[in-house]
Amino acid sequence: MAAETTKSNPIRFGILGCAEIARKVARGIGLAPNAVIVAVGSRSLDKARRFIANNGLDADAVRAVGSYEAVLEDPGVDAVYVPLPTSLHLRWAVAAAERGKHLLLEKPTALCAADLDRILDACRSHGVQFMDCTMWMHHPRTAKMRELLSDSARFGQLKTIHSCFSFAGNPAFLQSDIRVKPDLDALGALGDVGWYCIRSILWAADYELPTKAIALQGTVKNEAGVILSCGSSLLWEDGKVATFQCSFVAHMTMELVVGGTHGSLRLSDFVIPFEEEKAPFTFGSGLFFNELVTGWQILPSMHIVTTSLPQEALMVQEFSRLAGSIRDSTGKPDDKWPTISKKTQLVVDAVKASIDQGYIPVDIVG
C-alpha cells in the first residue's frame, strides 16, 4: 500500500512567478497537510528571494530560482503552481506537463479553448493532474449547497441562475494591472471576474453546458480594447436561463441566486467568503406572500458552514491528494477538473465572440 500524502511525504511545489495572488496560494500550500513549497522561480533571482522572505518561507528549505525553466527541470519538484499572465499559460503549462509536473493553473486557464485543449492534451499525454484555481469550489459550503440543489422535493427543477462579481479598481489598477493589458490578459474582466460567474452558473446547472450565449449590450472597454465590464445571458434547450454581470468598474459585489420550481438559494460572497472560518448562504422552499401581500409567510433559512482550513488550502489539499495518488501508483489523473475547466473556457469564448460580433447569439458546442 502506498504511503499517504502528508507533510512527511508531501507533494513538493514549485511556483512559477511572483504574482500577487501567489502570496495567497503560497500560504494555502503551507496550511495544506500534504504539500510544501520547495522552489520559487522568477525571471529575476532577486524577486524570487524577496518573495520567499516577504511571505515567511524558510530560505533554507525553499530555493530561489532565476528562471522558470530551472524549476521545471528540478527533479525535486512534483507539481507547479502557475500564476503567470494568461498569455504565458500555454507555453509554460505545456512545458510543465512535458516535464512530468502536476499543474495547478491560475484562471482564466487560457486565452481560448483551443489553447486550453493543447494544455490538457499535454497533461493527459504525460499522466499529470490538472486543476485550475477556482478556490470556492473546494469550500465545504459548496458541497452543502449542492445537497440542497439536488433535493427535488425542496428545490425542484432548476429554472434561473443570476451571478454577479464586480469590484471597483482604483486608477492604478485600471492603468497598469496585468488584467487590463491586451498583451498579458486580453480577456480582461471577462476572463478574471467573469470566470467565477460562469463557473458558478455551470456549477448550479450541474455542469450542463448552455447551448447559446447572448452578450448584453453595454460592454465597457479601455482604450486598448480590453473588457472592463460586460454581461451575458446563457440559454439551455429545456428553458433554463442564466445571466451574469462582471466588472472592474462597479462596487464590490459577489452575488449568486439560484431559482428552482420549489426553492431558491442565495449568497453574497460566493467567490471569497466574508470570513475565512465560516461562510453563509440562505435557502428557502415553499416561500410565498402572506394573505394581504404585506410580507412573507415563510422566511428563507440562514445556513452557516464552518471550515478548519481556508478554501485555497482545501484546493491545494485536494490537488495534492490526486497528485500523490499518481506519484504512488494508486490512482490516475482525475478528469473531473479538466472537464470543468474546459466547459468554463468554452462559455468564456462564446461570450467573447458574442461581444465581438455585435451581441449576436453564439452557439456553445462542447
From TrEMBL:
InterPro entries recorded: Gfo/Idh/MocA-like_OxRdtase_N (IPR000683), GFO_IDH_MocA-like_dom (IPR055170), NAD(P)-bd_dom_sf (IPR036291)
Gene Ontology molecular-function annotations: nucleotide binding
Signal peptide residue numbers: none
Gene3D superfamilies: Dihydrodipicolinate Reductase, domain 2 (3.30.360.10), NAD(P)-binding Rossmann-like Domain (3.40.50.720)
Domain Gfo/Idh/MocA-like oxidoreductase N-terminal: 11-131
Domain GFO/IDH/MocA-like oxidoreductase: start-end pairs: 144-266
Family: Belongs to the Gfo/Idh/MocA family.
Protein name per UniProt: Gfo/Idh/MocA-like oxidoreductase N-terminal domain-containing protein
Originating species: Ensete ventricosum
